[in-house]
Structure formats: C-alpha cells, structure tokens
Design brief:
The complex is a heterodimer of chains A (440) and B (186).
Chain A (H helix, E strand, L loop, with lengths): L8 E10 L3 H12 L4 E4 L6 H5 L32 H14 L4 E2 L4 E7 L2 E6 L2 E10 L6 E2 L13 E4 L13 E5 L3 H12 L4 E5 L3 E2 L3 E2 L2 E2 H7 L13 H5 L4 E2 L11 H6 L3 E4 L1 E5 L2 E4 L3 H25 L24 E3 L5 E6 L3 E2 L18 E2 L2 E2 L4 E3 L16 H27 L12
Parallel strand pairs in A: 1-2, 1-6, 2-3, 6-23, 8-19, 9-10, 9-19, 10-15, 11-14
Antiparallel strand pairs in A: 4-5, 5-6, 7-20, 12-13, 16-17, 17-18, 21-22
Chain B lengths: L13 H13 L7 E2 L2 E6 L2 E11 L2 E13 L14 H23 L4 E11 L18 E10 L3 H13 L2 H7 L10
Antiparallel strand pairs in B: 1-3, 2-3, 3-4, 5-6
The chains are: A alpha/beta (440), B alpha+beta (186).
Chain lengths: 440, 186
Amino acid sequence: MIHRVGSRGKRYITTVIIGAGHAGLAMSRCLAERSIDHVLLERGEIANSWKTERWDSLRLLTPNWQSRLPGYRYRGDDPDGFRTMPETIEFIERYARVISAPVRTHTEVISVRRSDDGYEVAAGEATWHCDTIVLASGACNIPQVPALSTAVPAQIATLTSAQYRNPAQLDGGGVLVVGASATGAQIADEIHRSGRPVTLAVGEHVRVPRIYRGRDIQWWMDVAGVLDERYDQVDDVVRVRNGPSLQLAGYPDRRMIDLNSLAQIGVKLVGRVMGINNGKAQFSGSLRNVCELADLKMNRLLGTIDEWASANGLHSEISPPHRFEPTRVEASPPLGIDLTHGEIRTIVWATGYRPDYSWLEVPVLDHKGHIRHDGGIVQYPGMYLIGMPFLRRRKSSLIDGAGDDARDLSARLASYLSRRKRAFLQARQPRHGMASPRLI
Amino acid sequence: MITTQKTAENGVNVEALLGAREALSKAPEAAQFKWRATCKWMNGTHSRSTIDGFYGLGDEHKHKTQFTFDADHPEVFASEDKGATPVEFVLAGLASCLTAGIAAVAQLRQIKLRSVSATLEGTMDIRGILGADTDVRNGFQGIKVIYNIDADASPDDIKALVAQSQKRSAVYDIITNPTNVMVEVQ
C-alpha cells in the first residue's frame, strides 16, 4: 500500500459505526439483519474501555442473565453472578465473533465531517464516505474532574477513577474519595479495607439495595418495567440523563454497599467538596439532605416494586416488604479538612465521566457539550447515537439496554436510507432532459 | 407545548416558572441576575438596609415598593435593640427561601398545602465574634429547621417536598457552601 501525505485511501460504505463496545456491536448485528453494509471503527480493541479504564476488582453491576444482546445471551451456570472485567471483555469479544462484526481495531477516528450526500470519516489511514453514521463511542471517555481540583496542594497525590487500579497504587495514609456513586462507593470500600482511612465526600447519589425481598434489584426493575421506562415518558429527561449512577456493587457475596455499610467499617462521611482554599478542602453542609433525598427515592422505588409484586400475585411467594435503615449522618459532619496537615495523602476523583467528541466536526453539540438528539436520533439527518444513559429507556446505560435501542435505531436508520433512495430515484426522473439529484 | 395559564392552588404559578426554566436554558445570559441591597449606619449598632431593585432578564427591575430593614443588636449586647440582629435575618432568609420552595414543589407535584410553618434555631458560641477564643468560629455552629406541614400527602411525600426544596434553595446553598465575598472601601 502506498500512503501519500494529504491523500488517504477512499472507501465507500453505507454506515460507519464508531466504537466496538457492546452498543456498537448490538447495532452492527441489527444492521446485518437488515443487510445494511457497515463497518465498526474502533480506536483500540473490542471492549476497549473495559480493558483499559476499569479498576481490577470491578464486577458488572448487573447479573449475568441480564446482559442480553440481539442474538446473544448468557448460557453459563451462574446466571445470578456478576462478571469480572476479564469475563466482561470475553463476553463482548465473543459477541463480536458470534455476529461476525466487521470491526477495524486500532483505527482511531480523527474527524467526522458532513459531506454533500452523507458523512466523511477520517480514521487511521483511510477516509470513509458513508450515508449514515452511528456514534457508539461511549459515555465515559474523559474523567470529569471539578475545576477546584487545580487548588489541591502539591503534596497530595491525585488520581481519577479511570486511573485507579487497586489500593497498592496509593501511598499509605488517608485517602479522600470524592463522589459516592457506584464507583466512588466501591473504591472507598476497597481502599478503606486496605488499611488506608477513607473520607468520602458525598453529593447527590442514588441508594438502592442489592437484594430486596430475596430478589436482585435489577431483577425487580426488569420485571416491574422500571428499566423499560421510555425517555419520552419521564418528566425531565435532561436531569435523568445527567443523574448519578445507582450506588451498587457486584460483589460475589451480594452484600449491599451504601453509606451505612461504609460508615460501619469506619469510612468518614462528609458533604460534597465545594471549594479548596489555602489548602483546606471545604465540604457542603448539605450531607443530611442528600442522604434524605436518596432514602426517600429508594423507598419510592421499593414502593413501586411492592405494588408490582402485589398486582402480579408474587406477594405470598416471597419475603414480606420491608424498609432499610435510613442513612445515618452524624450530627455535625466536618465542614473542612486541612489538606496540608498530612491526614489526607491521596485524593481519588470519582466524579463521573463525559464523552469525547473532539473528532466530531458536525454542529450537533449543545452549549454543555452534549449531543442534541431525540432518543438517539441526532438532529442531523442520517446520524444516530447509542450507548448513552437513558438514551431511549432507563436501561439504555446497561449492556442489556443496547438491544432494544439498536433495534429501534436500526429501523429508523433503514427507513432514512429508503426515503433517501426514493428521493434520489424521483430526482433522476428526466425532466427538461436534466437529472438533478437533490437529496434533502 | 401550549398550556393554559392557571394560578396554582397553592398560589405559585408553576407554569411560569417551568416556562422560564425552558427559556433560560436556551438563553443563559438572560439568567444572570444581580440582587442588591444598600445599608446605612444609623447609630450605635443600629443600621438600616434598603432594597428596591435588582437586575435580571437583561434589564433593571424595581420592586413594587421599597423595603427597609432595621437591624441592631439586643440589649444583652448593650445595644438598643432597634431591629432584629443580622444573624436573625439570615434565619429569616433561609426560612423564607425554603418555604417558598416547598410551596412551588408542592404545586408542581399537585399537593395541596393547608398550612406550613417553620421554626428555626441557629446555635452560636459568641466567644468567636468577641475574639475571646480564636478556635471558635464567628458564625453558627449549626442551624436547625423544624417544619410543620399539613397537606394532602403521605409523610414521605411531605419529607420529599422539604428535601427537594433544600436541593433547589438559593439561601440553603449560600449557607451550606462557601461563597467568595469581596468587600472594598471607596
């Protein structure tokens, strides 16, 4: 092959899928069913984020049975177990093989531009020309660290949850974990048990039990239809999409992780980090309220589950309804810690992620840097988005949610292609002896 | 979406608030407000603050009337007690902010309120303001707010109103989180 500067290999294809994670692969399978030719461009390897951006002990937060993808499901003997990361990677890699997904690995997308009749995707050594494009590059590309992190004193080591692997990475001494969603809570638990005293800064969070009335919470949310709730049925989809993840862990012993369990082992709970001034971290005085909000919200979910269980005749078969102890918050949690005193040696930012669209040169981002879309249909013809929180349903952020979203969006993509084709053929009808293809 | 204009049963025009939220998320510059007060020393620890206008939605606004507030210290501080103490204004501000929030959230959630009352208490070790012990802070050690709410809703739904109101309250945020304060002399 000869490569010249400024001249890339040109390739034509109907659909380019960016990203070969579970969502891109589910889309690939649905497009293949419709005989739509496509390629998946993957910056690294299949399941790249799972391979390179997760800590060692992490297990999926959803049970094995729940990761159902189009044409693929769990067939092992531990349906209620939680996959380790190597098992998750293996599961996704095997899916790519089973569906013979046309994946180009180590092909980083450099730019996506609008062209006259579709999109132009510069990736690796080639430029792909396509009619339609599916963005499946994930929601968690760049750790989101608050701006105040720049004021952290130099003697404190800092790392993000994407860089964290295990406690042995850290110095001895105290650790401030910032963020108490699934990631922050699990990391706090693990680090504290390693003998490094943890202070956990807690903002808004979503508390749920692992097991309720003898069944996994994901099972309840699945059967009761909570996970199928659609994006156009909720009051404020923007708020839901930006909300924190469920405070869950996939421990093999199925134990519950929450602020009470963390406080029980000695983790110190403080409010959200609101400022760092002269080396002093300042915590919000709102800890009690964020815990109250989480307790009330959890009880509403359990109420929904109880109603569903009664209505579906399950009430007598399973253990009776109950409520969990409210989150214990000490009377006056500390409002600050002097980071120069040596008590805290490390800060772990478990403050969430944002997607990376630096390669996307199509004006579809809003002022917050999110893609403007309606249930994954981007406000630019022929462009689709998949694998984002609450994209079309509550379960859209789960592996299990990619299937229904891919089925819906592949149908929309196919109908866009056929509309386009009709318009093209109509435009080619000779009129005044001239063909003038106008597509849109 | 077209909605009919109605004033809520709790007297809060929620549609207007939701409309404003929708409009302002598209025009963030109009959302920039400036709240103002002026203050004049009267005598001793007595001062008088005046509030008559603010800036917002790209324009200056006047309150319907000018409001004045006298503040002073009580007689146990060897003052003349011509007004509430400034820290009591803080409690009043917090109570009013949370109570307004409760009414708005209740309206949005279709909860009819019959009565809402709050009792507030801020605890303070005055050795701080006296400079008697530098380890004691000047401000409140803590604030306790107790609500009594009579409404057509379950106890948990009422708790959720109060929790949501705290989540959206400006004064609650101002008190619980640090704010940069710049004081200059001209």
